[in-house]
Amino acid sequence: MRTEEEAVLMIDPRNLDTLLHPQFDAVAIKKAKPIGRGLAASPGAACGKIVFTAADAKEWKKAGEKVVLVRLETSPEDIEGMKAAEGILTVRGGMTSHAAVVARGMGECCVSGCQEIVMDEENKTFTLGGKAFKEGDWLSIDGSTGNIYDGVIPTVDASIVGEFGRIMMWADKFRKLKVRTNADTPRDAKKARELGAEGIGLCRTEHMFFSQSRIMSFRQMICSDTVEERRIALAKILPYQQDDFEQLFEALDGQPVTIRFLDPPLHEFVPHTEDEIALLAKSMHKPISRIKDIIDSLHEFNPMMGHRGCRLCVTYPEIAVMQTKAVIRAAINVQKKHKGWNVKPEIMIPLTGDLKEFKFVKDIVVHVANEEIQAAEIKLNYEVGTMIEVPRAALCAGEIAEEAEFFCFGTNDLTQMTFGFSRDDAGKFLGAYYDQKIFENDPFAKLDQVGVGKLMKMAVADGKATRPKIHCGICGEHGGDPTSVEFCHRIGLNYVSCSPYRVPIARLAAAQAALRK
Ligand code: PEP
Ligand code: MG
């Protein structure tokens, strides 16, 4: 007879993926030979007919077809097509680029960064493994291994069996780390709650604008010429945000919800096609040439290091004003509706690197939040904290904690900026690092405990020295990786936050970390 501790320790958390996502039929996959390989970006298996555009994915799905969406890379416009597809395959990108992060959030299979593919998007063909593929050909992909197969390999659906719940319950008894989720929609939040999440650790608010019906007002905000124009666009965005936040607070039954202020890499959000540019120009009563000029002026050589995160609030404080109103009004409404709940929004400022920079944004938040709370004649607590994702923020964590009420490590960016590797492009050369045995793992998937981890450890210690009760979490993709979770336990974080389908993995890994100590 085994003890509960022994049972919890026996299971490899990575194997939970097989219970939570569709897999290839065990007999069929044994006989199959991969024709290529990309990054195992989001687990599960998918089989479908190849389509090359998000619009086709939607249309074909409507017509009853199963499709695999093959793209050079994905962007917010592709979201509906990504949802419609069984799986997503991209030529470019890494473990933390758009396709990977979004697919993981949706629990959908994704193989990213398959550099071997020679793509001809215009003619809807690509070659891989010496074969030319065209629209409608069958393809099978495995997001747990990164393998790509020619033709049909049958899949079997996920099946959570009876003992799963019991093991999870045991795990919860032992773990010290809380497990939250990264969720941007009420649907993801509900899924994560079912899988045991104890709060939202990251709501990427820019992801709330992916749908076709919303992206227009977001683009109007980005392409405004004047503060007045931007205010008009923001006024359209506010009700969307407030409504989404209300639904998130509701879905979480009063559990903590961390809402991160806008952090859109601008190149992902500006319109790309002539049609989209024309539509935007019409909606803003501007000539098409003016919109093109604005898009050109927004071009950045390093968009991931560019005008994003809190830098947007410093240049356009009206964005912070709108988001604060949306969060606080939503919290007030939900608090009024559920008298017994303690709705306490956590407002998180992204990409902070400096105390004064953080304070500039925090002052706006506090001013607006207090006005809203007073006007509503209600008692509502809220916190303003920061992501630690720029190395300077980790180095200056002691100072930043004078103002920041919580820290959350954004280890996607912290890894990018500590190594100086672009999170979207590193896949091009990381292969050579594995071949040369310089790296054993992708640092965007498994936390680099030696370098990035050292910054985290230092930031936690310095933050706590200034503000002993500061709560610290992680919301980079590493928050759902078992060895990284174990590290987070060791350095005394309070919670890890990961995409919904990785919540059980994190629960088990956190319990194992506590038991092995
Ligand atoms: C991060 O950088 O780790 C993070 C969670 O933020 P994003 O991936 O949205 O940049
Ligand atoms: Mg980030």
What are the main properties of this structure?
517 residues, alpha/beta, Glucose Oxidase, domain 1, TIM Barrel, 2 domains, eight-stranded mixed beta sheet, eight-stranded parallel barrel, globular, binds phosphoenolpyruvate, binds magnesium ion
What is this structure, in a nutshell?
The protein folds into two domains: about 140 residues, Glucose Oxidase, domain 1, CATH 3.50.30.10; about 325 residues, TIM Barrel. The chain has 23 helices and 21 strands. The chain is globular, with a radius of gyration of 23 Å.
Structural class: alpha/beta
Could you list the spans in which at least 5 consecutive residues all have pLDDT below 50?
none
| Strand content range | 15-25%
Tell me which CATH architecture of the largest domain applies here: Alpha-Beta Barrel
* End-to-end distance: 23 Å
- Mean pLDDT equals 94
- What is the general shape? globular
- The rounded Rg comes to 23 Å
Number of helices: 23
The strand line-up of the biggest sheet is 2-12-11-4-5-6-7-3
Relevant CATH superfamily of the largest domain: Phosphoenolpyruvate-binding domains
How many domain regions? 2
The count of β-strands is 21
CATH class of the largest domain: Alpha Beta
User: What's the helical proportion of residues?
Assistant: 40-55%
**What's the oligomerization state?**
single chain
Ligands and ions found: phosphoenolpyruvate, magnesium ion
Largest sheet: 8 strands, mixed
CATH topology of the largest domain: TIM Barrel
